[in-house]
Amino acid sequence: MPHVVVIGAGIAGLTAAYRAVNAGHHVTVLEAASTAGGAIAPATFKLPEGPLTVDAGAEAYASRSTQMTQLLYELGLANQTVTPNPDGSWLYLPQTGAVPAPKLGMWGIPGDPTAAEVVQALGTQAAGRAAADLTTPMTTWAQRRAQGQPITVGELVADRFGPVALERLVAPVVAGVHSADPHELDIDKIAPGLLDKAIQRDSVARAVTDMRAAAPPGAAVKTLPGGMHRLIEALLDALSDRAEIRFETRVTALDPATRTVTTQTGQRLSANQVILAVDAPSAYDLLSSSTQLTQRPTYGTGVAIVLLIVDAPGLDVHPRGTGMLVSPAVTDVRAKAATHVTAKWQWAAQAATSLAKHRHIIRLSYGRITDPTDGSAPGHDTADADLLAMAATDASAIFGLEHQELNAGLIASKIIRWRRAMPLITPENTSRIRAVQEAARATNWIQVTGAWFAGTGLAAISQHVTGLPLNPLQ
C-alpha cells in the first residue's frame, strides 16, 4: 500500500490525510505542535458559572463551497450547520463613525452605488462618483484583460467607483477579512469571474449584482454550533483508526532522491508521496536544500485576537449588527475589526446567556498587512496589557457603550496571536510562494497545500486539497 506522509495537522493537512486514506493510501501525519487544527482553534473560558468556548481562529466557511459541503456530509455534520444573524455588519469610517455596511456587495464593492447605505457611507458627492460605474464603459479594462495584465482590487475600484469608495467601502473589508492591501491584491484572487462579468456587463456594480443573484440562496457563510473547531474534532475522529498522527514531531529534512522524511529525532520515514500542509516559509526551509530555490517567502506582521466576555445590557439590542470592519484611515479606533459573536451566532448567544442574562462575547482583531515591521503598530507584537486596554477602549467606541459600563461588566479576556497562519499577500511574496509551489511539483514527490498556496478561507483550502493528485491510486 502506498505510503503518504502529510506534514502539518491544520485543516489542510487533516483534510489531505482524510482524502488520502479514502483513496486507499497508508497515511502518516506529522505535526510539530501538540494539538491539531492550526488556525481553527477553540478558546475556552473557565468561568464561575461554567465553561464557555468560542472560536479563536476561523469561525465560518463560505457556504458556496461544494467541497466543504461534501466534506461535512461525509463526516456527518452537514445537517448541523447554522447561518449567522442576517442583520449584517457595520463599518467604522473616518469623520462619519459607525454606519451600516451596504447590503448588496462583494468584498465591499457595491452592487448598487445609489443605495441609501452607500450614500450614507460615502456622502452625496462621492456616491455620485461611485454611480459613474453604471455609465462608464469598461473599454480600458477589457483591453488590459485581453493583454493579460494583472489587475488589483485597488486600481479597479478606484477607477470605477472613485478613491473615496475604495477607502471607505472596500479597504475595511479587504483589510479586515483578507488581511490584505487592496492595491496589492489581484481581483481574480478574491473575486474569480468578477472582472470578466464586469466587462461583459459594462459595469462592475452590475457584475456584482449578477453574481450575487446567481449565488445559492441563503447566507454566504455557515458554521457549526459550538464552533468550527468541531470540524477538526470530526476529522481526527475519522482518522483515528485509519491513519497515524504524531504530535510534537518536527520534520527537519526531505530527500526527494531517497524519498525519505527525517524528523527532529533522526527518524527516517520512507514515503511514496509527501504533502506539505504548512506555511510557505516553512515549506521553503524544507525544500531549499534539494531544489533551486533562493528566495524565501516572508511572514507578515501577524495579528492579535482579543476575546472579551462582557456582561452588558447595552449589547442586548445588537447596536452594531454582527460586528464592524474599521477603515484603515480611522485614528480613534485601533482595531481593524470587531465581531459581536453572540449577536452573529445564535448558538453562542445561547451558550453565553445560559451562564448570565446579559453575557456577550466580543472578538477584536489587531494588525494590518500595511503595518510597519518594527512592531510599533498594535497587533501581534503588542504587550498583553496594552492590547487589553486598547480592546476595552475600542469596544466601547465601536459598540457605542460607556467605557465605564464595559469595564464594569468585563468578566474575562484572552489574547491569541497568529502569524504563520496568515499569508502575506504582496506581489513579491506571491512570486516567491509560486516558486515554492513549482519547486515542490518538480520533485514529482512533494505537493504543497494550505492557506499560503490555496488562498485564505476554508473554502479555498478545501478546493485546493481536493485537487491534489494522490499518486498512484488517484
From TrEMBL:
Origin superkingdom: Bacteria
Coiled-coil blocks: none
Domain Amine oxidase per the UniProt entry, residue ranges: 11-289
InterPro entries: Amino_oxidase, FAD/NAD-bd_sf, Zeta_carotene_desat/Oxidored
GO molecular function, one term: oxidoreductase activity
Pfam entry (one): Amino_oxidase
Protein name: FAD-dependent oxidoreductase
Organism of origin: Enteractinococcus helveticum
